[in-house]
Amino acid sequence: MSTQQPAYLRRIQTISPHLQAPPQTVTKNIIYSTIVIGGGVIGASCAYQLSKDGGNVLLLDQYHMAHDNGSSHGDGRIIRFSYPEDIYIELAKIVYPMWKDIEKESNTKLYQMTGGIDFGPGHLEPIVDLIQNYKKHNIPYELLNKEEAEKKFPQFKFSPTDVIVYQAEGGVLYASKAVKSLWLLCKQFGATVEQNKKVDRIKVESKDLITVLCDDQTVYKGRKVVFAAGGWTNELLYRSQLNLTLRIEVSQENVFYWEPRPDTPKSIDYSQYSNPVAIYYRDADNAFYSLPEIDIKGVKCGYHHSGTALDKMGMPGDRKPYPKEKLDQIKEYIGKYNPGLNNEKESSSLHCHYTNTPDYHFIVDRHPKHSNIIITSACSGHGFKFAPAIGKLVSCMARDVPTPFDISDFSLNRFNNKSLIKRTSA
Questions:
Q1: Cα dist. 132→7, 81, 187, 273, 367 in Å?
Q2: What residue stretch is flagged as signal peptide (predicted)?
Q3: Are residues 345 and 290 in the same domain?
Q4: Which among 64, 66, 213, 258 could bridge 179 via Cys, Cβ 3.0 to 4.6 Å?
């Protein structure tokens, strides 16, 4: 594993001690079984599952509950079985029942089944592999021709050469609402939750003790630590002098909302109760996705992995412009496949961050030298749906019990080989 620090980490500045008197250090006397750093959907899911499994858990976030500075906010995220890789089918099998449990425990609706379609030229590897994986795992699906698909989903127009794969359990998760529910459930199951607590660094005292120092000089102690800090992970690893730099890149992504044209028939329903989630594979490396209208006016559409790479996570309010040529391609996609929507001008847009690995697979692994540090949440733009299942994997690791299935696809050592494995699909 490379220990050379990227330039942006070497440029991290510290506040001069001459500018202000240092605050008084406050050391908490509790030794937590696990401290989770990062309260987005992954960190909240880890803290939820760890506390539910009986741990004495502390969850720390540098901002407030369900903030919009990371990767977990918004009105909706896609949940689906539609993956050509085995490991994501395994995660989906675990996570669908978990989301139902979370809904019951929080008494909050978080999932709406809309059905999901994956479509594109039939010769493309993602489409071929997806169908094969459905068959392998006995996931029910339908192949629709153009006429069948347009009758079932009048919101879309398809090309005669498209292969259209329908899976009924695809749907949407209510993103910000889900994060808030997980935070509340953490407390319900006994976890301590601290907002506006930025972790400055951690220190591994021994195999059974880690000290966590926040920038307000509060000190916490735990037996294990879970890094769920997304795009801030490398900065924290660097400040903590843990001799590890992850092979990740942060990008700022944008999604856009598109309302129907004035002359679109009112009988065409773009709401979550009629419109499916959809992924269109233009080719093997480029995909567009859409979600029905939920809370924000219009259909949500994005171009997967099309945003601007960032040197580091910015401050709140620091936004990069979305590439015009990418937005033009989204407009072209909508004009062709969703002609009832006004593709001339988006009604609104939102930003979020992807924390991307080179192969777009997740990281769920222990630190190579410190087994009491677990690193996760580099989810490459497709991890929200799986968060409770990732929390379950992390809980197993923290409690030193076997995970439900082999997770070597998420290991850190896969990056030791410079020739990376095939990138995952959208």
A1: 43, 13, 42, 29, 35
A2: none
A3: yes
A4: 66
C-alpha span between 318 and 308 (Å, rounded): 13
What does R_g of the chain's alpha carbons equal in angstroms? 22
Q: Are residues 341 and 266 in the same domain?
A: yes
pLDDT in tens, 351-387: 888 999 999 999 999 999 999 999 998 888 899 999 9
Question: Quick one: tokens of 80?
Answer: 């689906």
DSSP-assigned letters across all residues of 152-216: H-TT----TTEEEEEETT-EEE-HHHHHHHHHHHHHHTT-EEESS--EEEEEEEETTEEEEEETT
Q: For strand 348-356 and strand 77-79, is the pairing parallel, antiparallel, or unpaired?
A: unpaired
Same domain, 211 and 162: no
Residue 327 has, within 13 A of its CA and on its CB side, a CA count of 17
Q: What angle do CA 59, 231, 361 make, to 5 degrees?
A: 100
Residue 97 located in a structural domain: no
Rounded to whole angstroms, the Cα distance separating 164 from 121 reads 9
Determine the straight-line distance between the first and last CA of the chain, rounded to whole angstroms. Answer: 27
262 and 327 assigned to the same domain? yes
The pairs formed by 280-284 with CB atoms below 8 angstroms and a separation of 24 or more are: 280/118, 280/119, 280/120, 280/333, 280/337, 281/118, 281/119, 281/120, 281/121, 281/124, 281/126, 281/127, 281/425, 281/426, 282/120, 282/333, 283/120, 283/121, 283/124, 284/124, 284/125, 284/126
Of residues 249, 185, 188, 199, the one with CA closest to residue 228: 199
Based on the domain organization, do 291 and 347 belong to the same domain? yes
* pTM of structure: 0.90
Q: What percent of the chain is modeled with pLDDT above 90?
A: 78
- Residue 156 belongs to domain spanning: 113-172+250-356
Q: Give the whole-angstrom CA distance, residue 246 versus residue 240.
A: 14
The residue among 306, 329, 356 that closes a domain is 356
Query: Is 304 part of any domain?
Result: yes
Last residue of a domain, which of 328, 356, 384? 356
Secondary structure letter of residue 260 according to DSSP: B
